[in-house]
Amino acid sequence: MSLKTSTSDTISKYIKWFFVFFIFLSSCRKSDALKSISQNSISSHQALGAGTSENPNIIFILADDFGYEIPTIDGGQSYSTPNIDRLARQGLRFTRGHSSPLCSPSRFMILTGKYNFRNYFTDSWGYMDITQRTIANMMQSAGYKTCAAGKWQLDGGDTSIHTFGFDNYIVTKPFKISGSGEDFDIFYKNPKIYKNANFLPSSETAGKYGEDMCRDYMFNFIDSNKASPFFIYWAPNLPHKPFSPTPDDPEFASWNPYKLQEKKDSVFYPSMVKYLDKEIGMLLDKLVTLQLDQNTIIIFTGDNGTETSIRSLFNGKKIQGGKAYPTENGTHVPLIVSWPGTVVPQTINSNLVGFTDFLPTIADLAHTTIPAEFGITDGVSFAPQILGNAGTPRKWLYTYYDPNRYGPDGRAAQIWAQDTTYKLYDSASLLYNYILDPQEKKPIGLGTQSKRDSSARNTLQSVIESYR
Question: Which of 55, 51, 216, 214 is nearest to 145 (CA)?
Fold first, then answer.
């Protein structure tokens, strides 16, 4: 063997070992970077692309008539919510999420990112104009498969649901509320379920529980689309009236869902909350089984306050449900965001979040943008806060609320703006410190207000004026 050959082999050997060392060093650095992302979360789209999937699955869960006082994790003491609590422990819990006082306008804000004066006028309860566009349209454009399961309550049936961006659906209340009694709420036992442009025949629903049917449909959708990114809008009817037994109650077998509901039926309310929580647990377990949990964002909230006939123990105090009222009990709802491996677990955030904020937030989390055809939107993304940054939290919330369920009734819309302490109503310029006075029984008069009161009044009035 020549000296030239020996020297060449030696050089090749050193190059080989240098290359191995370089790969090892790069791996160590990459491992450290991923560990840092897991521990400290993510601060920007650039970091998000580096450390996590570009297209996380997103499941939005909207419980019906589910106020802040219900989950144990928030301070509730009347119900069993171990899986909602589990969701919060593995993610981020917002303590200042606010909805509309009623469900249909809340759903409009969630899906479109717009305040209700852009759609919801005196004769449009339970209706969304076909020209509007939704989160599902946006996600379709970003390459997502989309599904709606549960309550719809935005009219239009099959045409609207598909126009608003949902590939697949199984829903209750697909058409506008008439107020005639024809739309009696049958979505629990022997449910009135709408799928593929038709209501299912009674032969397919007799003896069944509607929530089970919607859940199973959603699970089948996940199974069929686990290899591609998906967006699910899951809007359980639970625990909305009619209060009735679940399949876990012995009374379920003989229960007649067509009988007139009586106040005593509210005895089943805790069981309904427990069943909803159980279904959420089933979803979490399914995602783990399919190894989708770390690539799936779950957002959980309620559409408005709890039904007024329900009284619950919350942090040692009895709380009456405030559904349909603009007070804290009517609009303060739980809000949880979970993304295992990305969102820092057991985090609590006290910044304001409104229902128009979900659309831009989901756009950021999915690395997409709101299409220009959506027109004006009103939300503020809180994705930076989900990903561990301060971001730019909201300083105020604005609400346009018209409770005319069945058409014009002579009542003007209620309009208000609030910050973290004060709430100002457009009518008569009523100002409240809703932290000290959550039932809003003591308006702050012009002659008795402090400098801080006055400053808040001026700021909130300017917010209201900006939306004239």
Answer: 55
Asked if 326 and 317 count as a contact pair (C-beta separation under 8 A), the reply is: no
Pairing of strands 347-354, 91-98: parallel
Last residue of a domain, one of 332, 363, 394: 394
Which of the listed residues 394, 423, 449 is the one where a domain comes to its end? 394
Rounded to 10 deg, the angle between the 103-112 and 358-365 helix axes is 40
| 121 against 130, higher pLDDT | 130
Its domain, for residue 448, covers 414-466
- The DSSP-derived string for 51-82 is HS-SS-EEEEEEESS--TTSSGGGTB-SS--H
Q: How many domains does the chain have?
A: 2
Please indicate, yes or no, if residue 307 is contained in any of the structural domains.
Answer: yes
Q: Count the Cβ atoms, other than its own, within 10 Å of residue 227.
A: 6
Structure tokens at 344: 């820092």
Task: Looking at mean pLDDT, say which of 56-65, 385-394, 442-451 comes out highest.
Answer: 56-65
How many DSSP H helices and E strands does the chain contain? 13, 16
Residue 409 lies in a domain: no
pLDDT above 80 for 8: no
Single-letter code of the amino acid located at 318: K
pLDDT per residue as tens digits for the range 417-430: 999 999 999 988 89
Q: Residue 27 class from Cβ within 10 Å (0-12 exposed, 13-18 middle, 19+ buried)?
A: exposed
Q: Is residue 9 part of a domain?
A: no
CATH code of the domain containing 86: 3.40.720.10
The answer to whether residues 388 and 447 belong to one domain is no
Residues 70 and 109 in one domain: yes
Chain centroid to CA 204: how far? 30
Q: Quick: pLDDT tens for 336-379.
A: 999 999 999 999 999 999 999 999 999 999 999 999 999 999 99
Task: Specify whether 304 is located in the same domain as 261.
Answer: yes
CA distances, 57 to each of 122, 178, 188, 297 (Å): 37, 36, 28, 6
Displacement of CA 451 from its chain's centroid (Å): 37
Residue 270 and residue 418 share a domain: no
Higher pLDDT among residues 149 and 46, named by residue: 149
